[in-house]
């Protein structure tokens, strides 16, 4: 530990140099990347730069391996490769998904080694049989752009930092020991025998490697090229290839496995020995590219070059400070930790997916040049259309516009002419349902993004009419996806209908009546899957019948995806009054809403359920998964809007804690965190595609948010607390404000929201119909 | 057959339009692509353009498949995918090696089908179980740029033609039958389970496919992208994937195997149905690229576009006419067939390896742009340094210079900084021995090629000092590759030493004494592997001892590669007088030379031998493999130079016949054929790297060769015949010429060689030392 202080001193001096011009409070120190690393959060503790494609992070297990054709262990737990309570670290790899519920990546893993050469990872229960190591959390430090741990088994200190495209490792080996680095190209998250289609390493010279691997996983064909530079010359090296190519040809004439600079195969685990006698430090710079090793080398040279570890870290920390310091606030340290960590989590995925020379691998497998936009990947759209994209659209408008343009590029390159469903490393992952990219585009249009709107409408319409989407062909004729064609027909109908609303809304704004009219009709199709006898959304057969024995508490096999009917039935944010109607009127609606939050959900409905745990429940309301995220705000349309305020405070306190287990569910590429940021500010985009944000309640006494246009949002609720959680009155720019929503224009103009809070609800607020938020139809 | 005549008439009309300006005799009709398609020639009968990367040819078998871990059948016979006596055709694929002894490729195979859908090839003995078909040679037509066959089992007429980067198929289906095309991406030459690392097909629209496959074979990682256009819309399609990905992810939600436009996997065999009711013709244009599907589409648009099959064929035939009509001659039809077919075979490999936009996949895996040269691949250098490259250097100087530049690009991209050994599709295949690219570079320099000589010397020296070449490290200190380090140490020493000579010669010409001096020494190292007690080259141990029990008749396991000591002992063309010396003087040398051609080699030395058959023997002289190719010319240095004339006539008559079995050995990417062209002209580059061609004897009464510089070689031997096979006298440009060699300058100046031939040798010719060809040292 003795080198910690000089390192921190140097890095901090460099960092203050970078940020000195800004004279803002250093908010990076509040970020706690450990939040969510235990249990369901599926976040990773490692180092990354804002929106960078490199997430350099420790992995604690690589379960599952395919043993006798069966996957062993809990794949789901290892979406980000790290579970806090695991006893060992396997290595440090460069690509991770932040908070997802499905997994892939873990590319290009390094691990330092001393002593005996072992090229297999070993197991958590028998770490000595492999290169993995025990570790203590006492040696672990995680902050923006920085991760540190000391490996217990070999006493190697590991420090990690990253730029958008380069991971930088600093290994300090113990004196008197040899020093070796393992480069495991077989390792991966959600790994299985045969996942690596091909891999290659070239030892270009004694301090530079290039190489790549192609994997077939969630990303169907994922090309990861790399360039790796070392601060010390390689003394010797070699590799093992458990599954040697059946045909080796004339390569047999060489001693391929020792000091041969062209390694290739499907099971490559390589090692590199270094001299540890004069200096114990080894700095390793790993640049990635999806294009080529040439691209990786350009990324390496441009983003890192000859910079020291400390310089890279300081610059990355400064870039996080620039990104995060758009918000200043008052609150407890824990509240600040949660706020800034949430903001941090909204800026990991989507990730930039192009080289510094703007080349990127497109969905068509070709190399394109992003001449007029920045290309992004990792669009977890079923999650992120709700709050992550609206948040970025508000706070990082340029980035969100570039993401929209990336989705349009994906559409242009799609052989189906379909916008992304789950974009992953130049691949379509097809995970989850709906066509929510449509919503992101529509929301961008409605909120004034500078994109090619003609192309956007073409993309939206061709996507929303792509009849390979389950049940969509029948949806377009019957008005709902039939259960006999589609196992999640009920939720699909709800999702399609919402997405269709956003097309309508964007078309309406742009005067495209040719589009707005048909999609206005489709925006109401959600009603067709409501069983009015039950007052619940329910799967419906093509012949018109509803499922006979619907269990509205049950998440699976009831016609819904990752949600039960109790939660999904509220999924018509485009038409809350219409929804009330099909539920039997406002009273029935309100009763159901209250019951949702207050019921006692029997454990049988969530034990052994990936998507619901007790941690993420408020009554029967499931905050840990996305379909419910807008529900607490639906009180705004009712006669008890103040109940939103109550529910939100409960959720905020319960689901978001400055703790390793502090996230009640998967962060899902920032969606859970974006919900937090919005809700902390006191408003939420209940219905993307409209220009409204529904008011909730501020969580902190003071927040100031710098918008990209230079304007500021100031939110003051001086006496807010768990007790004083009810809005008594609100002034917007000094004038009393009675509406239950703000418009995008209100925010863009810059505004000050001044709340008077109290311990009892002001039940008179927000009762007038004129103060109610948008609904496609009005209450009948 | 009824459509044959109109087709030929149309194509011929188009063709004459293309060539009309040239008013030269149509020599394309003499080319017989069937020569060498039976037995050892390993040529293919299909269609290609000069130096094109596409060789669109039928395949008669795909042996071996890996059955229970063992390869079945005779891999060697199927290097070009076609054996004349096979009863069935499997399909028509786009890449083939011409005449090699090792194999790969057979990429992107199409096969027409009617009736029942079958997606496996079946076997030659049970063709009805697969998509393969019987065929009759009566329906087969092969000529430059054209191949035709009618498949007996489904009565589909198949016509093939090609541009450099595009194969064009025309299928005529029988009336009243359905029509289907199989696209087998699993098929390959030298195929085995696991060879296809990944493959992909995108149905871009109803007349266009794009896709690729990556294979791990002789080319370690071979990227073949394609774009395929159809003259009719696809009605329906699908694929089978015998080895489905273990992880299919969310693709499972689709009906992937039927009409789904994104197919991918490791075992893809796809089919496409077309309407056969209105027209029975289906034209298919298949463009390849090693860069991307974008590159393939550019190649398709630029080289073929909307041209008809007939237009493409006529243009390709015209381009062959331009290439081949540089030679005019008198002779029998069989002699002309052999001459033009040989010339044709010298212009298939090497092949152009870059897209029309000049992008190509380099040895480093990166995409490069060939800004100042044309990039070529398929360098079978152990073979082609001898005569193929010297021939191209003389007749197609620009192409050879571009090939040299391609080798330099390979060197720049080589992590070893080594010139190509066997360049194959952007890969190094490492097949065979020596570093003969050095010789090609040196020969180009000596003969005045416009290349960067400083870079060339760097490349030659770094290659000749790359100590991973077997035994080379010891060779550089001991003066020979030791047998205890290197199983083919004796031939390696001979080959290294010859290559070293060429470095010396080129350096001497360019005044680089820093290089010429050390390599002059190495040029004599061949002597160190001569066992003077035997008078034979013999493997030698590091301690100086020679192998005790050398069997100089035995090809294998005696320290030589693909040759016995009897043949290899003559492998010092750079220093024939020195060689005589180590063999015990001229008399001993001559005695050995005669014995070589006159011995009765016991069959045990060539039965079960891939590289020697009775077909390719003259006594113990093996013409079917390359190490001996210069030997008949070695008489020039002796007192019986006329014996060269005798031996050559024998070899020419025996080894080169206008017959399916007309080649006595593998054509080896044009080397056997280049030998034929040179020998027919009456001279041969015995020692590339010197500027001399050693005179043999003209084979035909008249030849005229147009050189690229506009000058002509005219070779007249009016009364030459099998009887009159001896040179009585020779006039060069009208003046008596007594030397036994010509220089490159003599040829470049243009010249007329007028021979008087007779039935008895003129034993006085060529006896003066001044008339003898080059030798590094003189006779002692």
TrEMBL record, chains A, B:
GO biological process: carbohydrate metabolic process; glycoprotein catabolic process
One Pfam family from the record: Glyco_hydro_92N
Domain of life: Bacteria
Protein name (database record): Putative alpha-1,2-mannosidase
Record's keyword terms, sorted: Calcium, Signal
Extent of the signal sequence: 1-21
Subunit structure: Monomer.
GO molecular function annotations of the record: carbohydrate binding; peptide-N4-(N-acetyl-beta-glucosaminyl)asparagine amidase activity
One term under GO cellular component: cytosol
Lipid biosynthesis is among the record's keywords: no
Glycosyl hydrolase family 92 N-terminal domain location: 30-289
Co-factor requirement: Ca(2+)
The Glycosyl hydrolase family domain, residue ranges: 295-759
